[in-house]
Automatic annotation (TrEMBL), chains A, B, C, D, E:
SUPFAM superfamilies to which the protein is assigned, alphabetical: CorA soluble domain-like, Magnesium transport protein CorA, transmembrane region
Gene designation: corA
Transmembrane segment boundaries: 269-288, 300-320
Domain of life of the organism encoding this protein: Bacteria
Protein name: Magnesium transport protein CorA
Role played: Mediates influx of magnesium ions. Alternates between open and closed states. Activated by low cytoplasmic Mg(2+) levels. Inactive when cytoplasmic Mg(2+) levels are high.
Pfam families: CorA (PF01544)
Family affiliation: Belongs to the CorA metal ion transporter (MIT) (TC 1.A.35) family.
Membrane topology: Multi-pass membrane protein
Keyword annotations: Cell membrane, Ion transport, Magnesium, Membrane, Transmembrane, Transmembrane helix, Transport
Listed GO CC annotations: plasma membrane
InterPro entries recorded: CorA_cytoplasmic_dom, CorA_TM1_TM2, Mg/Co-transport_prot_CorA, MgTranspt_CorA/ZnTranspt_ZntB
Main location: membrane
Reaction(s) catalysed by this chain's protein: Mg(2+)(in) = Mg(2+)(out)
Amino acid sequence: MIVDSALYRAGQRVDVADHSPGDLRALRACAGEGDFVWVGLHEPTGPELEEVRAVFGLHELAVEDALHAHQRPKLERYDDSLFLVLKTLWYVDEDDAVETGEVNLFLGADFVVTVRHGHGGSLSRSRRDLERHQQVLAHGPAAVFYAVCDQVVDEYEAVGAALEEDVDEVEASVFSPERTDDAARIYTLKRELAEVRRAVLPLREPMRRLAGGEVSGVAGETAPYFRDVADHLQRVAEVVDSLDALLSTAFDAYVARVQVQQNDDMRRISASVGLIAAPTLVGSVYGMNFEQMPELGWRFGYPFALAVMALSSLVVWLVARRAGWL
Amino acid sequence: MIVDSALYRAGQRVDVADHSPGDLRALRACAGEGDFVWVGLHEPTGPELEEVRAVFGLHELAVEDALHAHQRPKLERYDDSLFLVLKTLWYVDEDDAVETGEVNLFLGADFVVTVRHGHGGSLSRSRRDLERHQQVLAHGPAAVFYAVCDQVVDEYEAVGAALEEDVDEVEASVFSPERTDDAARIYTLKRELAEVRRAVLPLREPMRRLAGGEVSGVAGETAPYFRDVADHLQRVAEVVDSLDALLSTAFDAYVARVQVQQNDDMRRISASVGLIAAPTLVGSVYGMNFEQMPELGWRFGYPFALAVMALSSLVVWLVARRAGWL
Amino acid sequence: MIVDSALYRAGQRVDVADHSPGDLRALRACAGEGDFVWVGLHEPTGPELEEVRAVFGLHELAVEDALHAHQRPKLERYDDSLFLVLKTLWYVDEDDAVETGEVNLFLGADFVVTVRHGHGGSLSRSRRDLERHQQVLAHGPAAVFYAVCDQVVDEYEAVGAALEEDVDEVEASVFSPERTDDAARIYTLKRELAEVRRAVLPLREPMRRLAGGEVSGVAGETAPYFRDVADHLQRVAEVVDSLDALLSTAFDAYVARVQVQQNDDMRRISASVGLIAAPTLVGSVYGMNFEQMPELGWRFGYPFALAVMALSSLVVWLVARRAGWL
Amino acid sequence: MIVDSALYRAGQRVDVADHSPGDLRALRACAGEGDFVWVGLHEPTGPELEEVRAVFGLHELAVEDALHAHQRPKLERYDDSLFLVLKTLWYVDEDDAVETGEVNLFLGADFVVTVRHGHGGSLSRSRRDLERHQQVLAHGPAAVFYAVCDQVVDEYEAVGAALEEDVDEVEASVFSPERTDDAARIYTLKRELAEVRRAVLPLREPMRRLAGGEVSGVAGETAPYFRDVADHLQRVAEVVDSLDALLSTAFDAYVARVQVQQNDDMRRISASVGLIAAPTLVGSVYGMNFEQMPELGWRFGYPFALAVMALSSLVVWLVARRAGWL
Amino acid sequence: MIVDSALYRAGQRVDVADHSPGDLRALRACAGEGDFVWVGLHEPTGPELEEVRAVFGLHELAVEDALHAHQRPKLERYDDSLFLVLKTLWYVDEDDAVETGEVNLFLGADFVVTVRHGHGGSLSRSRRDLERHQQVLAHGPAAVFYAVCDQVVDEYEAVGAALEEDVDEVEASVFSPERTDDAARIYTLKRELAEVRRAVLPLREPMRRLAGGEVSGVAGETAPYFRDVADHLQRVAEVVDSLDALLSTAFDAYVARVQVQQNDDMRRISASVGLIAAPTLVGSVYGMNFEQMPELGWRFGYPFALAVMALSSLVVWLVARRAGWL
């Protein structure tokens, strides 16, 4: 589906009178020196993408990648155009889960084609932002490149922050006195961190190249902008690594807590056993059948025995209490 | 065994009238400028391979490697020809196991020799596919190189996907409430991942070189194709690493679960002991031989005692219940 | 808030008669050849920073970073000026916790602007120290660069030393005979080490560049000073890594201790159970109702039975004692 | 001890009439253009080695290394000669242990000196093999270099294969239902793997240099042979790494199994306790002294009570059985 | 404190008639072309070091480092002189502990200044050795550099060997049948290994540069000597890494042993409980008050009951024995 398509001239969107949204060839024909066309697609069908390919002369292998998605983040040159694959991430609050999509960008001298997969990560915000900053947009297609990367990486940071909160929760749970089963939660978080890492790490190399101004077709003066993006990306990578390490430690602490609790239980149980076993011993004493057992003939022998029983339990209880077992 | 041998001219298979399948020398003689011969062998005997060596002038050390198999994946230049070793992998559903084979390729200016070991990974699909794509095949022997690599790496991805499912199963099993013994399963999966890693990792360097167009004898215009293969390879490597890390965490979670279960058992056992010990204490009370024990003379003393016993069990049961021990 | 602003000439602070503290433009105008201005800000508002930007011609992206803080440590060139981000760290004794702030430095040919965030890490010490060392200050703005880095890294070392003490305490606690819950303490320390690492590691690369004299705009003769800073930074990094590894081992030792203690408890408990169960067995013997039980008729049968009971407990106690269980 | 010394000319051993085995100076004097002398020593004494040093002009530091052995594998140039240190490994079946020795090689334009330490790894096989391959031997001293490296690395592979079998055994033991103490075995294997790694890893760099034809004094045409050796070395390194990782996982599985077994034991024990405690409760019921206990007067009261006791045990047994505890 | 100071000419110590030990300026003035002065200091005071600085024109920052010690090992150039920091290590048998000191060396064209901190690692041995080897000493100040490095690294090797023995002891203890508490010992050893690593690892880079002859001011012909030192250093580094990995495995084995022992204890305890519980059950049977219990009237009923009790214990004992629980 073509979400939007427009011609930009000197940093401003140009109204093209006789242009039906889907007629990309006509749109491109309107582009003069320094103008460029930005076509935005969302989960396009094969034929839609084929038409785009024909209009802008994209490379077959890249188009195939853009159709099927599920690529690794990468930046590649095909003849005159650049092809960038980005993973989009967003955090779904209801499930405490990270979901992923994909954005593919084709960049030529006078066009940008963006192909988005997945629900989240709409690019219309980037477009609106850019259209408000004539100055940035005047850098041409590379500005779109930057704006999309910037938005996507901003979303990484948001996801990173959300995961940081999740880790804080897990941490609080692990070290709370309550008995919680944190193993599954930690596992899931580790799995989500792995997801984020899979989006972030392979993107660092392309961003570094863009930030270094090494990519022909992307003007050198945009490098500081990409440097900013690369920096944020690096920060996300560090956050993810650091959270992963923390979770490993938290997991170990969880296991230690389970063990400590088992210890506590065992001692509490043992004390309880003593509370019952001690008076049982007393009972077995007075259950003996000796002919000469003076207590048996006492008037208050029975209450006396009960008192001894209670006392024996009390002694056990006090000892256990003092040892911190109860 | 020679599986197939044929002459290709301008991207098409050429019928060579007077050619018996095994007469490779005659076949090669038919090859004109720009033509090439593709000979496919499956677990050849020494003499078969020796004949091939003689016809195409292959290097002794490479031929020895191709005969014995069990090489590391590698790409090497011997005089005028290239020698590529690939591990083939396939997933056997019945055993949930990964099996391995090997493909050796010799590439000269006018020939390709493929030597396959092991049951799986037949190359006839590659051959059929290629013969349908005249355009690709027209790139000469390098096209065969590409086609075989592509098929082999596709199979890696299939194996990776199958293992991902296995890991999902293990994960479900570890976090299910049932008591399963997941240690052996996790161990086996880790072992299989190590197998895959052993096939994938050493191949990355050769693929990178081919993708960079650095290998003389392989035309630069095929580089994008190899870049595609290298990319898939990289993805498999990342999947494998990520699965391995997940399995480690899953293993830790499994051990934690065993411990938690032991804890649960211990508490359940303790509660059960209490269920029996409490009435036993009551019994020992009324088994005492005091002369003055009013209850003993009661008409309903015995039912009363039984009721106290039941009550004592009930109290234990309620306490245990409330503490979540039963 | 503008904390201080001054003009330096030939290594000395110059009084500028008609200069109100906030009038930076006037101050800068006074700067002749070889002079420089040092403006120190603390958590400036947007407008304050905007004015500074206008006066010194700073780059927008850098100013935005300096406004919002929460950047990674980095050194970047924007047109004519350098932009350095440092994390400040200080150890709060009351909480045994590490807190973080941030310092941003802008360096031009004739100015330094320092922007500080967070409570700790005041730079007035650096300024006073520098103003006392005319010789160092004569190196121009780079001297301020050095002085700030030096102070910040000195504080890293202080934090490292404080954490070393904390680790020593944890270590003592883990190996003490007392039963302490060290898991949370170790976790917190690991978390703080991660904090320090996040400040230290990314700074190494910029310091290495400054120490190598590779940064244009910073005179080569200051390189030995930055080498000194880089060296201290490296030492902090090594201390942090080493503490982290020690904590991991200490954690393992803690878990092992928990297990050993459980073992000890179990044996102690078992011995205690034996102390009660043995005399109970004796009691059950003499509670049997045989007609012919000579002891029952003995005069001192009852005391004898009690003695046997006590003896049985004593035997259990001695056996347990000898086995080291009590 | 001088094991063998001979002159080689055009790939063949030459009989030197008037040559006593120990008279190396005379032997060397016989060497014409393109000839070379191969002297093989086994654990030489200082004076023996000193004589060799004098005859061939070896460097003092290298000779000292060769005398004392216990060097790291390395390849070094001293003036005109090369000095190579190799660790030899062999597997002693009786002890399931890996033993180590050392080979030092000196290579000059017209000589090779091999110095062997330790029982295993005799080089006479290399010499015999080489003497049979005139073609290879014709490459001069470098052929000896190659032959020795090849033999030593072949032995590494044999050791690797033997350790693989050991790991398989351990694996089988860990996952067998029997209770085996695998910790010590795993530890020993890890220690032996570390031994192998210490021989293999430092050798990779020299082999890579020889395989790249970068070592002056070793003819470029021998590079493919060294490439073969380097490849095998790499394979051994991968096998060792992979076995080490497997052993770590196997160890974790072993610990998990111990824990699972403890769990099983605990449940079995608990069930057994129940088998005794339940009828004891019944006994305590009928041991009560109530005047009105109808069962006591029944004719078959006693058998009835015994039956109730048996029944109570049976119920416990069935419950435990069903829960899988017995 | 100035330990020794002397003038060396052509590899020999020269007596300077009118030279008081502390008059370094006079001593240096005596040095002709190719001579050099070696001044050895031990924990000098500030003024002592200041005098040395003045005489030899050392750099302020380096002198400050040498005064305070606690530097990382490093090699740095300050103007015309080199500054090398080494950590010294020695093993104190009484405590089984590694202690550390520091040596700082200043190297100029005609002087060497060595500054030693800490008790151990006296350099007088190096001086005596060197004075005996005129040939080596003739290489000038670099010979002193080499001699000190050689001695220090030799001591590293001695420490490594001592730690290897300690690890062997711990290993023996972990796998002995006795119950030992090895956690603290392993922890301490790991801590000491970290200490050694901190001395060894940063020194590798300087040694590699010296071994490569890349350091101006140190003659190229001394490179083989430094190569030797670098090699030993590398060996120590490998030993330390390998010991550290072994200790980790040993620790895991220790934890596993604790768990196995707990298992053994639990089974032994359970069997013991059975030994008491079984006869108690018998006792409770004959404690029942049925009117019709034939055994009660038997003449040898009581001995019979005792026999049954003993038998029941025996059965438990045999069963436990057979299961390996006792």
